[in-house]
Amino acid sequence: xxxxxxxxxxxxxxxxxxxxxxxxxxxxSGAKGNYVKKVSVTSTMGPGLKLDIATLAAS
Length: 59
What we know:
- Helices cover 37% and strands 10% of the residues.
- By secondary structure, the protein is of the alpha+beta class.
- It has a two-stranded antiparallel ribbon with strand order 1-2.
């Protein structure tokens, strides 16, 4: 996971960006097109919140 409910917004944002960076760096060189199409964050039993991929890429 990228955090706990007790984390402040800044810490969660940093963790999500670090995760997104790691996923993008792991993209195979032969992969074409958009590697990540959708991103959401959720608690174990809660509803998912969609994240804007463009915002994550702007890190």
